[in-house]
């Protein structure tokens, strides 16, 4: 993209996947001083400058924006809002994005929201079960399959690597001053929504009162309890590529109804212990980079 034609971005929410980015997106959309495109996850900066082969090798590419004109069009309806940004969790796990954003927007503010990586991996697995894309009924079997799936660029091969937050955040801390990066925890959203949104408002320089009606948790994972529910989630997945054309209020009502049909299995103790061991060194790196205290993520 010609940098002279860049949209006026003030911030981006970079992820992580399955860590309440949908909730943040909806809250930002509702704030009167903030412009965020209604389309979540454009993911443009993960693909800008990539070859067609590189783009097609990424599992998210079918629903991502790879056209500069289409990306710019997302911001065409901005109408006097004080700041503008977008929400794309792909930006956290994509190794190229931090440098690209820094080159185009050196004053950009970066927001990340993280979730206990073991719980995040399990939630990711349940999401693919929910949508009919994960055939394995045991999470441990899906973990065993990660290396082969990842090598094949399969979407269901990202359960483990997506939770390596320290390695994913490091390029952002290299590219941006620490004071331009805000890292939140999903646990804090559940524990004290008002305090978390007050921190976000202060970081973005907007009135915290604009987040008063911030939505509850969205895009929940789980296993459909009936054939009808499985069918409905299958249809939902197939229309995902044009979901941005559906009014947000309608999508929210449909999601709320569908979520009531899900069972919510718990992560087995042996699977959690396996994941805690896998993530231990990266959790330490995340603590070092962010200054967060993350001992709860090491519980077994």
Give your account of this protein's structure.
With 300 residues, this protein is α/β, with parallel strands linked by helices. The chain has a single domain, classed as 3-Layer(aba) Sandwich (Rossmann fold), CATH 3.40.50. 45% of the residues lie in helices and 8% in strands. The protein contains 14 helices and 7 strands. A 5-stranded parallel β-sheet has the order 2-3-1-4-5, sandwiched between helices. Helix 9 (165-175) packs parallel to helix 14. It is globular. The mean pLDDT is 88.
Summarize the structure.
With 300 residues, the chain is of the alpha/beta class. The chain has 14 helices and 7 strands.
What labels describe this entry?
Rossmann fold; 45% helix; two-stranded antiparallel sheet; alpha/beta
| N-to-C CA distance | 47 Å
Number of separate structural domains = 1
What is the CATH topology assignment? Answer: Rossmann fold
Strand order of the largest sheet: 2-3-1-4-5
In terms of topology, how is this protein built?
Blueprint: E1 11-13, H1 21-30, E2 34-35, H2 52-56, H3 68-73, E3 83-87, H4 90-93, H5 97-104, E4 109-114, H6 117-130, H7 139-144, H8 146-151, H9 165-175, E5 181-185, H10 186-191, H11 193-204, E6 223-224, H12 227-238, H13 248-259, E7 262-263, H14 269-290
Parallel strand pairs: 1-3, 1-4, 2-3, 4-5
Antiparallel strand pairs: 6-7
Helix pairs in contact: 9-14
């Amino acid at each position: 993209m010609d940098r002279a034609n860049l949209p006026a971005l003030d911030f981006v929410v970079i992820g992580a996947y399955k860590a309440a980015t949908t909730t943040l997106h909806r809250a930002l959309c509702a704030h009167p001083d903030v412009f965020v495109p209604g389309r979540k996850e454009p993911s443009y900066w993960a693909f800008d400058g990539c070859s067609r082969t590189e783009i097609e090798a990424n599992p998210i590419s079918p629903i991502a924006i790879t056209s500069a004109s289409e990306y710019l069009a997302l911001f065409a309806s901005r109408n006097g809002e004080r700041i503008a940004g977008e929400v794309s969790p792909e930006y956290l796990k994509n190794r190229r994005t931090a440098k690209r954003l820094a080159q185009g927007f050196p004053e950009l503010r970066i927001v990340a929201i993280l979730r206990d990586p073991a719980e995040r991996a399990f939630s990711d697995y349940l999401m693919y079960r929910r949508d009919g894309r994960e055939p394995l009924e045991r999470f441990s079997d899906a973990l065993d399959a990660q290396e082969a799936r990842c090598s094949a660029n399969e979407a269901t091969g990202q359960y483990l690597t997506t939770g390596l937050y320290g390695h994913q955040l490091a390029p952002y801390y290299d590219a941006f001053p620490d004071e331009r990066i805000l890292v939140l925890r999903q646990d804090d959203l559940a524990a004290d929504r008002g305090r978390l949104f007050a921190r976000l408002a202060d970081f973005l320089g907007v009135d915290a009162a604009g987040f008063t009606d911030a939505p509850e948790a969205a895009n929940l994972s789980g296993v459909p309890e009936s054939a009808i529910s499985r069918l409905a989630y299958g249809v939902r997945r197939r229309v995902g590529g044009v979901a941005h054309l559906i009014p947000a209020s309608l999508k929210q009502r449909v999601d709320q109804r569908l979520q009531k049909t899900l069972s919510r299995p718990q992560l087995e103790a042996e699977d959690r212990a396996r994941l805690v061991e896998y993530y231990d060194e990266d959790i330490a790196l995340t603590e070092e980079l962010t200054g967060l205290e993350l001992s709860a993520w090491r519980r077994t």
